[in-house]
From TrEMBL:
SUPFAM superfamilies, per database record: Mitochondrial carrier (SSF103506)
Pfam families: Mito_carr (PF00153)
Family: Belongs to the mitochondrial carrier (TC 2.A.29) family.
Location relative to the cell: Mitochondrion inner membrane
Gene: SLC25A42
GO cellular component, one term: mitochondrial inner membrane
Organism this protein belongs to: Rhinolophus ferrumequinum
Organism ancestry: Eukaryota, Metazoa, Chordata, Craniata, Vertebrata
Keyword Transmembrane helix tagged: yes
Solcar repeats: 31-117, 129-214, 224-312
Stated role: Mitochondrial carrier mediating the transport of coenzyme A (CoA) in mitochondria in exchange for intramitochondrial (deoxy)adenine nucleotides and adenosine 3',5'-diphosphate.
Membrane topology qualifier: Multi-pass membrane protein
Name this protein carries in UniProt: Mitochondrial coenzyme A transporter SLC25A42
Domain of life assignment: Eukaryota
Record's keyword terms, sorted: Membrane, Mitochondrion, Mitochondrion inner membrane, Repeat, Transmembrane, Transmembrane helix, Transport
Protein backbone atom coordinates (compact mmCIF):
# COMPACT_ATOMS: atom_id res chain seq x y z
CA UNK A 1 0.00 0.00 0.00
CA UNK A 2 2.79 2.36 0.99
CA UNK A 3 4.72 1.49 -2.17
CA UNK A 4 1.65 2.18 -4.29
CA UNK A 5 1.23 5.61 -2.75
CA UNK A 6 4.91 6.37 -3.31
CA UNK A 7 4.77 5.23 -6.93
CA UNK A 8 1.64 7.35 -7.47
CA UNK A 9 3.35 10.39 -5.96
CA UNK A 10 6.46 9.85 -8.12
CA UNK A 11 4.33 9.53 -11.27
CA UNK A 12 2.38 12.68 -10.32
CA UNK A 13 5.64 14.56 -9.81
CA UNK A 14 6.99 13.35 -13.15
CA UNK A 15 3.75 14.31 -14.93
CA UNK A 16 3.89 17.78 -13.37
CA UNK A 17 7.49 18.22 -14.54
CA UNK A 18 6.47 17.18 -18.04
CA UNK A 19 3.50 19.58 -18.13
CA UNK A 20 5.11 22.61 -16.48
CA UNK A 21 7.78 23.32 -19.16
CA UNK A 22 5.08 23.06 -21.83
CA UNK A 23 2.79 25.48 -19.94
CA UNK A 24 5.67 27.89 -19.27
CA UNK A 25 6.76 27.69 -22.91
CA UNK A 26 3.20 28.39 -24.10
CA UNK A 27 2.91 31.37 -21.74
CA UNK A 28 6.29 32.65 -22.91
CA UNK A 29 5.23 32.33 -26.58
CA UNK A 30 2.03 34.30 -25.93
CA UNK A 31 4.02 36.99 -24.15
CA UNK A 32 6.46 37.21 -27.07
CA UNK A 33 3.59 37.61 -29.55
CA UNK A 34 2.00 40.37 -27.44
CA UNK A 35 5.36 42.12 -27.08
CA UNK A 36 5.87 41.98 -30.86
CA UNK A 37 2.36 43.30 -31.54
CA UNK A 38 2.78 46.24 -29.14
CA UNK A 39 6.33 47.05 -30.30
CA UNK A 40 5.27 46.91 -33.95
CA UNK A 41 2.27 49.16 -33.38
CA UNK A 42 4.37 51.85 -31.64
CA UNK A 43 7.13 51.57 -34.27
CA UNK A 44 4.72 51.99 -37.17
CA UNK A 45 2.86 54.91 -35.60
CA UNK A 46 6.04 56.88 -34.83
CA UNK A 47 7.62 56.24 -38.21
CA UNK A 48 4.60 57.19 -40.32
CA UNK A 49 3.72 60.29 -38.31
CA UNK A 50 7.28 61.56 -38.70
CA UNK A 51 7.12 61.48 -42.52
CA UNK A 52 3.36 62.05 -43.08
CA UNK A 53 3.69 65.42 -44.94
CA UNK A 54 6.26 63.97 -47.35
CA UNK A 55 4.15 60.85 -47.79
CA UNK A 56 1.05 62.85 -48.68
CA UNK A 57 3.01 64.94 -51.20
CA UNK A 58 4.42 61.80 -52.82
CA UNK A 59 0.94 60.28 -53.23
CA UNK A 60 -0.42 63.46 -54.84
CA UNK A 61 2.33 63.33 -57.47
CA UNK A 62 1.96 59.57 -57.98
CA UNK A 63 -1.72 59.84 -58.91
CA UNK A 64 -1.39 62.93 -61.15
CA UNK A 65 0.30 63.51 -64.51
CA UNK A 66 2.36 66.42 -63.12
CA UNK A 67 6.11 66.15 -63.57
CA UNK A 68 7.86 65.52 -60.26
CA UNK A 69 10.79 67.57 -58.99
CA UNK A 70 12.06 68.44 -55.53
CA UNK A 71 11.24 72.09 -56.21
CA UNK A 72 7.63 71.26 -57.19
CA UNK A 73 7.24 68.97 -54.20
CA UNK A 74 8.29 71.60 -51.69
CA UNK A 75 6.20 74.20 -53.51
CA UNK A 76 3.19 71.93 -53.07
CA UNK A 77 4.00 71.54 -49.36
CA UNK A 78 4.33 75.31 -48.98
CA UNK A 79 1.07 76.18 -50.78
CA UNK A 80 -0.80 73.46 -48.89
CA UNK A 81 0.43 75.03 -45.65
CA UNK A 82 -0.57 78.57 -46.81
CA UNK A 83 -4.06 77.68 -48.05
CA UNK A 84 -5.10 74.87 -45.73
CA UNK A 85 -3.02 75.36 -42.60
CA UNK A 86 -0.14 73.54 -40.93
CA UNK A 87 -2.17 70.54 -39.77
CA UNK A 88 -3.41 69.94 -43.32
CA UNK A 89 0.07 68.57 -44.07
CA UNK A 90 -1.00 65.59 -41.94
CA UNK A 91 -4.36 65.18 -43.71
CA UNK A 92 -5.09 61.49 -44.03
CA UNK A 93 -2.71 60.66 -41.17
CA UNK A 94 -5.63 59.53 -38.99
CA UNK A 95 -6.45 56.99 -41.71
CA UNK A 96 -2.75 56.17 -41.90
CA UNK A 97 -2.68 55.45 -38.16
CA UNK A 98 -5.79 53.27 -38.38
CA UNK A 99 -3.99 51.29 -41.08
CA UNK A 100 -0.38 51.47 -39.92
CA UNK A 101 -0.90 50.50 -36.28
CA UNK A 102 -2.48 47.08 -37.10
CA UNK A 103 -0.31 46.71 -40.23
CA UNK A 104 2.99 47.27 -38.41
CA UNK A 105 1.86 45.23 -35.41
CA UNK A 106 0.90 42.28 -37.64
CA UNK A 107 3.98 42.61 -39.86
CA UNK A 108 6.56 42.70 -37.05
CA UNK A 109 4.78 40.02 -35.03
CA UNK A 110 4.38 37.78 -38.09
CA UNK A 111 8.06 38.29 -38.95
CA UNK A 112 9.13 37.12 -35.50
CA UNK A 113 6.86 34.06 -35.79
CA UNK A 114 8.02 33.21 -39.32
CA UNK A 115 11.63 33.52 -38.15
CA UNK A 116 10.94 31.07 -35.33
CA UNK A 117 9.12 28.59 -37.60
CA UNK A 118 11.78 28.75 -40.33
CA UNK A 119 14.54 28.63 -37.72
CA UNK A 120 13.12 25.39 -36.30
CA UNK A 121 12.69 23.97 -39.81
CA UNK A 122 16.28 24.76 -40.82
CA UNK A 123 17.72 23.87 -37.41
CA UNK A 124 18.76 27.41 -36.43
CA UNK A 125 17.47 27.71 -32.87
CA UNK A 126 18.21 31.15 -31.40
CA UNK A 127 20.65 31.98 -34.21
CA UNK A 128 20.46 34.23 -37.26
CA UNK A 129 18.68 32.56 -40.17
CA UNK A 130 20.59 31.85 -43.39
CA UNK A 131 19.95 34.32 -46.27
CA UNK A 132 17.06 32.66 -48.17
CA UNK A 133 14.87 31.89 -45.12
CA UNK A 134 15.62 35.42 -43.87
CA UNK A 135 14.31 36.86 -47.15
CA UNK A 136 11.30 34.53 -47.09
CA UNK A 137 10.38 35.50 -43.50
CA UNK A 138 10.24 39.19 -44.47
CA UNK A 139 8.22 38.57 -47.63
CA UNK A 140 5.68 36.39 -45.79
CA UNK A 141 5.35 38.94 -42.97
CA UNK A 142 4.65 41.78 -45.42
CA UNK A 143 2.15 39.71 -47.40
CA UNK A 144 0.29 38.69 -44.24
CA UNK A 145 0.00 42.28 -42.99
CA UNK A 146 -1.00 43.70 -46.40
CA UNK A 147 -3.70 41.07 -46.91
CA UNK A 148 -5.35 41.79 -43.55
CA UNK A 149 -5.26 45.61 -43.70
CA UNK A 150 -5.57 46.52 -47.39
CA UNK A 151 -8.92 48.42 -47.34
CA UNK A 152 -7.44 50.82 -44.77
CA UNK A 153 -4.56 51.55 -47.17
CA UNK A 154 -7.01 52.40 -49.94
CA UNK A 155 -8.99 54.71 -47.63
CA UNK A 156 -5.82 56.49 -46.58
CA UNK A 157 -4.82 57.06 -50.24
CA UNK A 158 -8.28 58.46 -51.04
CA UNK A 159 -8.11 60.90 -48.09
CA UNK A 160 -4.62 62.05 -49.10
CA UNK A 161 -5.63 63.13 -52.63
CA UNK A 162 -9.09 64.61 -52.04
CA UNK A 163 -10.25 67.92 -50.50
CA UNK A 164 -11.68 67.92 -46.97
CA UNK A 165 -15.20 68.54 -48.33
CA UNK A 166 -15.32 65.22 -50.17
CA UNK A 167 -14.68 62.90 -47.23
CA UNK A 168 -15.23 64.13 -43.69
CA UNK A 169 -13.66 61.13 -41.92
CA UNK A 170 -12.54 57.54 -42.37
CA UNK A 171 -16.03 56.07 -41.94
CA UNK A 172 -17.41 58.49 -44.53
CA UNK A 173 -14.86 57.16 -47.07
CA UNK A 174 -15.96 53.57 -46.44
CA UNK A 175 -19.66 54.50 -46.70
CA UNK A 176 -19.30 56.50 -49.95
CA UNK A 177 -17.10 53.91 -51.64
CA UNK A 178 -19.52 51.12 -50.68
CA UNK A 179 -22.59 53.04 -51.91
CA UNK A 180 -21.18 54.68 -55.04
CA UNK A 181 -18.50 52.26 -56.26
CA UNK A 182 -19.28 48.92 -54.61
CA UNK A 183 -17.53 46.90 -51.92
CA UNK A 184 -15.16 45.34 -54.48
CA UNK A 185 -13.51 48.76 -54.83
CA UNK A 186 -12.10 48.41 -51.32
CA UNK A 187 -9.72 45.78 -52.75
CA UNK A 188 -9.01 47.55 -56.06
CA UNK A 189 -5.23 47.62 -56.48
CA UNK A 190 -4.69 44.71 -54.07
CA UNK A 191 -2.69 42.58 -56.55
CA UNK A 192 0.03 45.19 -57.28
CA UNK A 193 0.15 45.87 -53.53
CA UNK A 194 0.98 42.24 -52.74
CA UNK A 195 3.39 42.01 -55.69
CA UNK A 196 5.13 45.14 -54.39
CA UNK A 197 5.11 44.07 -50.74
CA UNK A 198 6.95 40.81 -51.44
CA UNK A 199 10.22 42.44 -52.61
CA UNK A 200 9.76 45.48 -50.33
CA UNK A 201 9.20 43.66 -47.05
CA UNK A 202 11.45 40.77 -48.02
CA UNK A 203 14.42 42.98 -48.88
CA UNK A 204 13.81 45.42 -46.00
CA UNK A 205 13.80 42.76 -43.28
CA UNK A 206 16.56 40.80 -45.05
CA UNK A 207 18.85 43.86 -45.26
CA UNK A 208 18.23 44.93 -41.67
CA UNK A 209 18.71 41.45 -40.21
CA UNK A 210 21.81 40.87 -42.38
CA UNK A 211 23.43 44.14 -41.29
CA UNK A 212 22.74 43.32 -37.63
CA UNK A 213 24.23 39.87 -38.12
CA UNK A 214 27.36 41.28 -39.81
CA UNK A 215 27.69 43.88 -37.04
CA UNK A 216 27.49 41.15 -34.39
CA UNK A 217 30.08 39.08 -36.25
CA UNK A 218 32.67 41.78 -36.92
CA UNK A 219 32.25 44.29 -34.07
CA UNK A 220 32.18 41.83 -31.20
CA UNK A 221 29.13 43.62 -29.71
CA UNK A 222 26.01 41.54 -29.16
CA UNK A 223 23.64 44.49 -29.78
CA UNK A 224 24.17 47.52 -32.06
CA UNK A 225 23.74 51.04 -30.66
CA UNK A 226 20.48 52.89 -31.51
CA UNK A 227 22.15 55.16 -34.09
CA UNK A 228 23.60 52.04 -35.78
CA UNK A 229 20.13 50.50 -35.88
CA UNK A 230 18.87 53.71 -37.53
CA UNK A 231 21.57 53.43 -40.21
CA UNK A 232 20.79 49.75 -40.81
CA UNK A 233 17.06 50.57 -41.05
CA UNK A 234 17.74 53.45 -43.45
CA UNK A 235 19.72 51.13 -45.75
CA UNK A 236 16.91 48.56 -45.54
CA UNK A 237 14.28 51.16 -46.49
CA UNK A 238 16.36 52.50 -49.37
CA UNK A 239 16.87 49.07 -50.94
CA UNK A 240 13.34 47.77 -50.29
CA UNK A 241 11.49 50.82 -51.60
CA UNK A 242 13.68 51.24 -54.68
CA UNK A 243 13.03 47.62 -55.71
CA UNK A 244 9.23 47.83 -55.39
CA UNK A 245 8.54 51.49 -56.32
CA UNK A 246 6.94 51.06 -59.80
CA UNK A 247 4.27 48.78 -58.32
CA UNK A 248 3.66 51.38 -55.61
CA UNK A 249 2.87 53.96 -58.32
CA UNK A 250 0.54 51.49 -60.08
CA UNK A 251 -1.39 50.62 -56.91
CA UNK A 252 -1.87 54.32 -56.02
CA UNK A 253 -3.30 54.98 -59.49
CA UNK A 254 -5.65 52.02 -59.11
CA UNK A 255 -6.69 52.96 -55.57
CA UNK A 256 -7.59 56.55 -56.50
CA UNK A 257 -9.01 55.96 -59.99
CA UNK A 258 -12.53 56.77 -58.80
CA UNK A 259 -11.65 60.30 -57.64
CA UNK A 260 -8.77 61.48 -59.88
CA UNK A 261 -10.35 61.04 -63.29
CA UNK A 262 -8.15 58.11 -64.32
CA UNK A 263 -10.14 55.17 -65.75
CA UNK A 264 -10.35 52.06 -63.57
CA UNK A 265 -8.15 49.44 -65.22
CA UNK A 266 -6.03 46.33 -64.66
CA UNK A 267 -2.36 46.34 -63.62
CA UNK A 268 -1.19 45.85 -67.22
CA UNK A 269 -3.42 48.64 -68.57
CA UNK A 270 -2.40 51.03 -65.79
CA UNK A 271 1.28 50.29 -66.47
CA UNK A 272 0.86 50.86 -70.22
CA UNK A 273 -1.02 54.13 -69.64
CA UNK A 274 1.66 55.50 -67.31
CA UNK A 275 4.50 54.51 -69.67
CA UNK A 276 2.69 55.87 -72.75
CA UNK A 277 1.72 59.21 -71.20
CA UNK A 278 4.68 59.91 -68.93
CA UNK A 279 7.51 57.59 -69.92
CA UNK A 280 8.90 54.48 -68.23
CA UNK A 281 11.42 56.09 -65.89
CA UNK A 282 9.70 59.44 -65.34
CA UNK A 283 6.26 57.86 -64.83
CA UNK A 284 7.00 54.66 -62.92
CA UNK A 285 9.65 56.23 -60.69
CA UNK A 286 7.83 59.52 -60.10
CA UNK A 287 8.48 60.72 -56.54
CA UNK A 288 11.24 58.16 -55.92
CA UNK A 289 13.71 60.88 -54.92
CA UNK A 290 11.25 61.95 -52.19
CA UNK A 291 10.94 58.31 -51.18
CA UNK A 292 14.71 58.21 -50.82
CA UNK A 293 14.33 61.04 -48.32
CA UNK A 294 11.33 59.80 -46.35
CA UNK A 295 11.71 56.04 -46.80
CA UNK A 296 15.05 55.57 -44.99
CA UNK A 297 13.88 57.90 -42.20
CA UNK A 298 10.59 56.03 -41.72
CA UNK A 299 12.08 52.53 -41.94
CA UNK A 300 15.03 53.51 -39.74
CA UNK A 301 12.68 54.85 -37.05
CA UNK A 302 10.42 51.82 -37.41
CA UNK A 303 13.07 49.11 -37.04
CA UNK A 304 14.92 50.97 -34.28
CA UNK A 305 11.75 51.61 -32.27
CA UNK A 306 10.67 47.99 -32.61
CA UNK A 307 14.00 46.64 -31.37
CA UNK A 308 14.25 49.10 -28.47
CA UNK A 309 10.63 48.44 -27.43
CA UNK A 310 11.33 44.69 -27.45
CA UNK A 311 14.39 45.18 -25.23
CA UNK A 312 12.46 47.49 -22.87
CA UNK A 313 9.49 45.11 -22.55
CA UNK A 314 11.77 42.13 -21.87
CA UNK A 315 13.56 44.07 -19.12
CA UNK A 316 10.29 45.18 -17.55
CA UNK A 317 8.96 41.63 -17.54
CA UNK A 318 12.13 40.15 -16.07
Amino acid sequence: MGNGVKEGAVRLHEDAEAVLPSAVSSKSDHRQVLNSLLSGAVAGALAKTAVAPLDRTKIIFQVSSKRFSAKEAFRLLYFTYLHEGFLSLWRGNSATMVRVVPYAAIQFSAHEEYKRVLGRYYGFRGEALPPWPRLLAGALAGTTAASLTYPLDLVRARMAVTPKEMYSNIFHVFIRISREEGLKTLYHGFTPTVLGVIPYAGLSFFTYETLKSLHREYSGHRQPYPFERMIFGACAGLIGQSASYPLDVVRRRMQTAGVTGHPRASIACTLRTIVREEGAVRGLYKGLSMNWLKGPIAVGISFTTFDLMQILLRRLQS
